[in-house]
Amino acid sequence: MLNTNHLGLGLSLILASCLLLAGSDALSKYLLQSYPVLLVVWLRYVLQTMLMLGLFAPRMGRRLIQTQRPLLQLARSMSLVGTSAFMFTSLLFIPLGETTAVLFLAPMVVLLASVALFKEPVSRGQWLSVGLGLIGVVIIVRPGGGLFTPYVLLPIGAALCLGFYQLLTRRLANTDHPLTSNFFSTLFGTLVMSLSLPWVWQMPVAQDLWVALLIAVLAISGHLLLSNAYRFASAAALAPFTYAQIIFAVLFGALFFAHVPDHGALLGMAIIILSGLLVAWNKRRPGIS
Fold first, then answer.
1. Can you tell me the distance from the alpha carbon of 193 to that of 38, in angstroms, rounded to the nearest whole number?
2. What span, in angstroms and rounded, lies between the C-alpha atoms of 126 and 124?
């Protein structure tokens, strides 16, 4: 139940979630310097699955795996696998801040998919937000710039997958428990990525196993904080603050990977954030066109 008397707590939780998720991505980029992408993705999923079993199975029992929409759960899980694979591969070639910024095109993907698949009405303001988001990406990867390579398609692919993941999450929210959906995502992700192990396996050193465990802890904690934030404030009130993850990603990129985005990239990020704010604003004011 929404408790609107604790807006400050909701904002604190959403900002903490952004910090943890950006930290998880930064640590993943660290591991990618030593291990294959598919192995790092597998480590993240298998450790998250084990953590979720340990944390929630004793309390929820069979309810943790009870779903009314198994095919939708499978599709949602595959969308998340695609997001992880595209994003982690992107981190090999594109800085953390820029990758995270492009990933935040996902709300625009949700908007376009809702129109195409479910014929939902879209205002002029919402179309403007989509256009601004695309302009932001063009500025980040502008022709002649260092990021204007085929590799830029990787974070765009991640954003497309994440958009469908968010859309399916919304569809499942009315039938399945959020923890059930999250557990199926990690479980299916583990099973799918396990198929790649014969080709990518190498035993991580002990220190990197601890890093992989920390990645899983940060990811789970970030998503739990995100979910709990909406108990204290509306989605419309919190949505603008989710873009703090871009800021944290830029900071981590500068601190740990010595990358500071140039002025063009910063302008593109600002425009993407503005486009997301417009999406949130139009959700709060559905009558405005």
1. 7
2. 5
Q: Which two tokens stand for residue 40?
A: 């790092």
- As a whole number of angstroms, the distance between CA 95 and CA 103 comes to 12
- pTM of the model as a whole: 0.85
What is the 3 state secondary structure string of the chain? CCCHHHHHHHHHHHHHHHHHHHHHHHHHHHHHCCCCHHHHHHHHHHHHHHHHHHHHHHHHHHHHHCCCCHHHHHHHHHHHHHHHHHHHHHCCCCCHHHHHHHHCCHHHHHHHHHHHHHCCCCCHHHHHHHHHHHHHHHHHCCCCCCCCCHHHHHHHHHHHHHHHHHHHHHHHCCCCCHHHHHHHHHHHHHHHHHCCHHHHCCCCCHHHHHHHHHHHHHHHHHHHHHHHHCCCCCHHHHHHHHHHHHHHHHHHHHHHHCCCCCHHHHHHHHHHHHHHHHHHHHHHCCCCC
pLDDT tens sequence for the chain (289 residues): 445 557 788 888 889 999 999 999 999 999 999 999 999 999 999 999 999 999 899 988 888 888 888 899 899 899 989 999 999 999 999 999 989 988 888 877 877 777 777 676 767 777 787 788 888 888 887 766 677 788 888 999 999 998 888 888 878 877 888 888 888 989 999 999 999 999 999 999 999 999 999 999 999 898 888 877 877 776 666 767 888 888 999 999 999 999 988 888 889 888 888 887 776 676 655 444 3
Task: List CB contacts of 244: < 8 A, sequence separation 6 or more.
Answer: 14, 15, 18, 19
Between helix 106-118 and helix 263-284 the angle, nearest 10°, is 40
Q: Are 218 and 24 in contact (CB under 8 A)?
A: yes
Residue with the two structure tokens 């139009």? 282
